[in-house]
Design a protein that fits this description.
With about 325 residues, this protein is an alpha+beta fold. It is built from seven helices and four strands. Helix 1 runs antiparallel to helix 4 and helix 5 runs antiparallel to helix 6. The radius of gyration is 50 Å and the shape is rod-shaped.
């Protein structure tokens, strides 16, 4: 995987995590608001039921007419129950839905409770009236709220997917722009050869950043390589010249000696010249080896067993 694709995916993944946390938080807050808002509706509905059945004698005619206008406005799948303090149902008969005594006692103790049963939300209030105290339980299903939450979830899901696609495209563009200086460095380095080590990477004089530091480091490396190659070229030229001189002398002495028959003294003179030139050549080669060993990195040296080394020398 290229660095550009890796940066794009990492940027998209980071944005996806942050966006998912944000959307989840918004959804949770809206769901919480929906639930508490519906509980308020249930409380208001239970209070309206109590006023309709119990508070006619406590309200003015106008107030009771307002209650009558609100009463028909039932909630979805609404279930209303009214109990007296002996936990007996009054006004409205019980059917298959029945609230146990423990729940009713909890309403008496806490005066107001809210809880969820399946998809239904339930609100219980302790209603105080001059004719006695009563427990009113109102349960209903917030179908409209659930539908709105489903639509919101779909919208958030689509927005999440579209946002990821846009983020990935923008991430690729951003990574391309961010990696353009590195691509330029790579392109310039590809044109550098052993014969063109004098080339240098461009460095910005106004805005000095990490790419300029990298270019400067590479330029220093190229300078060291250029100096090393130049020193190697000069060394090879000088060594070739120094080695060619005694070899040429040896070959010349041998060829001259072979041109015709000579006396023993002349052959001895020729051989002495050959020995001198060979000794000079040997000394020159030894000096070159010492120079090469002097430039060796001591980090490459390793310990050896002297007995094994001596036996190898004897065998040689």
């Amino acid at each position: 995987m290229t660095l550009r694709n890796r940066l794009s995916l990492q940027f998209t993944l980071l944005f996806a995590v942050l966006l998912l946390i944000l959307l989840a938080g918004i959804y949770a807050l809206i769901e919480r608001n929906r639930k508490f808002s519906f509980y308020d509706k249930l409380d208001d509905r239970a209070l309206t039921i109590g006023q309709f059945y119990l508070a006619e004698d406590n309200l003015s005619a106008e107030g009771f007419m307002a209650v009558l206008k609100k009463y028909p406005r039932s909630l979805n799948q609404e279930v209303i129950r009214i109990y007296n303090t002996r936990f007996e149902p009054v006004f409205i008969k019980e059917d298959h839905i029945h609230w146990d005594k423990a729940l009713l006692e909890q309403v008496v103790t806490q005066k107001r409770i809210h809880f969820t049963k399946g998809q239904q939300q339930v609100a219980g209030i302790y209603y105080v009236d001059n004719s006695g105290d009563y427990i009113i339980i109102a349960a209903a299903t917030d179908s409209g709220g659930f539908e709105n939450m489903r639509v919101l979830a779909w919208i958030m899901g689509l927005a999440f997917i579209v946002s990821l696609m846009i983020t990935y495209i923008l991430g690729r563009l951003f990574s391309r722009l961010a990696l353009t200086p590195i691509s330029n460095v790579i392109s310039n380095l590809r044109s550098v050869r052993a014969t063109s080590l004098d080339k240098r990477l461009p460095i910005s004089e106004r805005h000095h950043d990490e790419i300029d530091e990298l270019s400067g480091t590479i330029n220093n490396l190229l300078e060291h390589l250029e100096q090393s190659f130049e020193a190697q070229r000069v060394f090879i030229a000088n060594a070739s010249h120094e080695l060619r001189t005694p070899i040429t002398a040896i070959l010349g002495e041998a060829e001259i000696a072979l041109l015709k028959n000579r006396s023993v003294e002349e052959y001895k003179t020729t051989l002495r010249n050959l020995v001198e030139d060979s000794t000079r050549l040997t000394n020159l080669i030894g000096s070159l080896l010492e120079l090469a060993q002097a430039n060796m990195d001591n980090n490459h040296l390793q310990p050896v067993h002297m007995n094994e080394l001596l036996w190898e020398v004897v065998d040689e």
